[in-house]
Amino acid sequence: MNRLFLCGLLSTFIFFADNLFAQHQINMLPAPVQVEKGNGFFQISEETVISVENEEQESLAADFADLFTVPAGFTPSVEIGAANAAVSLITDRDLKKEAYRLEVSENSIRMYASEGSGFFYAFQTLRLLLPSEIEGTALANQEWKIPVVNIKDEPRFGYRSMMLDVARCFIPKEEVLRMVDCMAMLKLNTLHLHLSDDTGWRLEIKKYPRLTEVGAWRVDRGNLPFYARLNQQEGEKATLGGFYTQDDMAEIVAYAMDRRITVIPEIDVPAHSCAALAAYPELACPVVKDKITVLPGLGGRNPEMLYCAGNEKVFAFLQDVIDELLQLFPSPYINMGGDEATKTYWKVCPLCQKRMQEEYLKEVEDLQGYFMGRLNDYIRSKGRILMGWDELTNSQLPEGAVILGWQGLGNAALKAADKGLDFVMTPARILYLIRYQGPQWFEPLTYFGNNTMRGVYDYEPVQADWKPEYEKHLLGVQASMWTEFCSTAADVTYMVFPRLAALAEVAWSPKGAKNWEHFQLGLDNYLAHLEKKGMVYAKSMYNIQHTVMPENGKLRVKLECERTDVKIRYTLDGREPDMCSLVYTEPLSLEKGITLRCASFVGDMRKGEILTLSLSDNKATGKPVLGANPRTTLLTNGVRGSLRQSDFEWCTWDNLSSATFTVDLQRVESIHKVVLGCLTNYGMAVHKPKNLTVEISEDNRRFTQVGQREFSEEAIFRNGNYVEDVTFTFDKRKARYVRVTAKGFGACPAYHYMRPGQPARYYFDEIQVE
């Protein structure tokens, strides 16, 4: 009872302290360049009049005024040249494009900009300074107050973008519009739509109706992950998908333009084209004999089917498609992809080989340079600019093209900068939102590693080792949301938000001006607005990432949360943590066999998921592992890996031909069993090794083999995603050292559904000795 009373008293104090603090803050993002906070508030009411100078301003002000109609029950008046209006828009030609000044007093609001975008961003700042109920769909009992403040603001980069992949997961028009509105609040100004891929063609092209009649639909593989979906079989119906009519797309483009967002279309060529080739197979190389279908997943070797570079009909087709894009999209850029093109068929296609001879091309890679160059010439002839991924730097760069730097840290784009071309940074290791955004045990399945919100926020696109001339060619940054693991719009927004807010801060704030603590407060305000809009977003930033390491026979447990304004509370008795549980302040040294439960708290509220670590108890737990691979410490840390090979609990080797590690039990023990956990993830080419051998020793010099296991090819490449414990039992022996040797299989066989010819990797965790 005393514990409950004290917890309740503490909760009340924290509640009032937090609310008092929140009432006196300017919490918004992206953080303005300069903020001077005053005292008091300006209140918007039904008497408020907004004075504008012209029709463009009138439209911007009307959109802002309309926000009040439902939640406030009134709509402020907008008038051109209104005298003595409380809110005024004033043109200041000295301000840069997209810059604005905002002066809020208790009696008036004055907004200054040189053009429409600046005024629009000033309104977005006001929107985020208002209570979040402004986004609601019901009448709110609320005073519509804006704090007194002076703001001077302008963006760092002119290109602030999100790429949205609607090809792998079709996102209905209405949901795209909702996402555009959420982008606008962050002052992002570019939406790059990935409209075609192996998995779907999403835009109506009137001259080629089969692109959507056939190319927009694939077989439904239910809830199977992307890498586990088998290709369409004979007789199966393609029923899953969708597309945008040209009227739909015109509506999206217009809606985005009203919010100062340019929509850039991407039609990916020459690869990622199975959906188009399924509709018009005559555009593939004639050496392709297999039926081409829209792919539901990775597709095995089917993605090697490309547009034929030697077929003139291909260029006529693509020029026709571009013509319709030019009518729909006023964007200065037309993105034609150019990424991940494996030239298997080009190398043996007589038409492609003839083209190489005619154009005096020595390498097949140069054939792609020719292919993209022709499209570039056509796009430039129409007054537009070709944009593409950084594989375009592998051959002759298209004149005047803009390159998206994506591979690794995006540095391939610097080869374009060397040639005087502009580029955009969207590095996969940092800004690809398909990657896990928090501790993987709590996240929806995807692949690769983690790109956390803090990682996005800390990204500095201009690196210290760049040549000085590179920076002038950097247009800006882009977060890229690939959707192969998404099934619904909610799945997509969960992955996009709140990391997109961190990208907005990178794109807008001056170099070196970011502040993580202030960002967190602004983020909470922005997310409150999203919540009122009914947007699904992730709360992964509150979850706990663990690192458990063997240490002197015990286990050293480090807990981390990317939110720095929370407390991590934990228990060691199996109970759920609450606000009266122990507070984590430094790494814990725990005995094996203990169950640790922890979560993050803000005040009396648990914010994150409860992390439960049931630390194992066997003779190997907590003991050192000898070997060159530093990851082998994971084998004895008492924590079992999940079904995800990238969850930071699985140990793998870069040298897949063979691997050896030795567990030091630290004293001679009587043992009779060794168990090793092996992961299989067929779609990611994770399989058991060909051979496992266990040896024991008392002195780490003379070893005796006590177990060996050979796995058949059938057993190694059994389909699925599962953990298999490989057990070795033997008569009791005295030993201090247990040595395990693995020999890899090599490349996945040609019949492998997903990764033929790619290295078969093996992953181990945990080793148990009894």
Spatial arrangement of strands, main beta sheet? 8-9-14-15-16-17-18-19
Number of distinct beta strands? 34
CATH architecture of the largest domain: Alpha-Beta Barrel
Low-confidence stretches are 9-24
State the fourth-level CATH superfamily of the largest domain. Glycosidases
Helix content: 10-25%
CA-based shape: globular
What do the pLDDT scores average to? Answer: 95
Enumerate how many helices there are, as a single number.
Answer: 18
Summarize the biggest pleated sheet.
Answer: 8 strands, parallel, barrel
* Global structural class: alpha/beta
Structural domains: how many: 4
- CATH T-level topology of the largest domain: TIM Barrel
Look at the structure and give the CATH class of the largest domain.
Alpha Beta
From the N-terminal CA to the C-terminal CA, the straight-line distance is 45 Å
| Percentage of residues in strands | 25-35%
Rg result = 29 Å
How would you summarize the topology of this molecule?
Blueprint (H helix, E strand, L loop, with lengths): L1 H21 L11 E11 L4 E4 L2 H12 L10 E4 L6 E5 L8 E5 L4 E5 L2 H14 L14 E10 L5 E7 L7 H13 L4 E5 L1 E2 L2 E2 L8 H4 L3 E2 L21 E2 L4 H13 L3 E8 L4 H6 L32 H17 L4 E5 L12 H9 L5 H18 L3 E5 L12 E4 L7 H6 L4 E3 L2 H4 L21 H6 L11 H4 E8 L7 H8 L2 H10 L7 H17 L12 E7 L2 E7 L6 E5 L10 E2 L4 E3 L4 E8 L2 E2 L4 E4 L10 E2 L24 E2 L5 E24 L9 E7 L6 E7 L2 H4 L4 E23 L19 E7 L1
Parallel strand pairs: 2-3, 2-4, 4-6, 8-9, 8-19, 9-14, 14-15, 15-16, 16-17, 17-18, 18-19
Antiparallel strand pairs: 1-7, 5-6, 5-7, 10-11, 12-13, 20-21, 21-24, 22-23, 22-25, 25-26, 25-27, 28-30, 29-34, 30-33, 30-34, 31-32, 31-33
Helix pairs in contact: 2-3, 4-6, 8-10
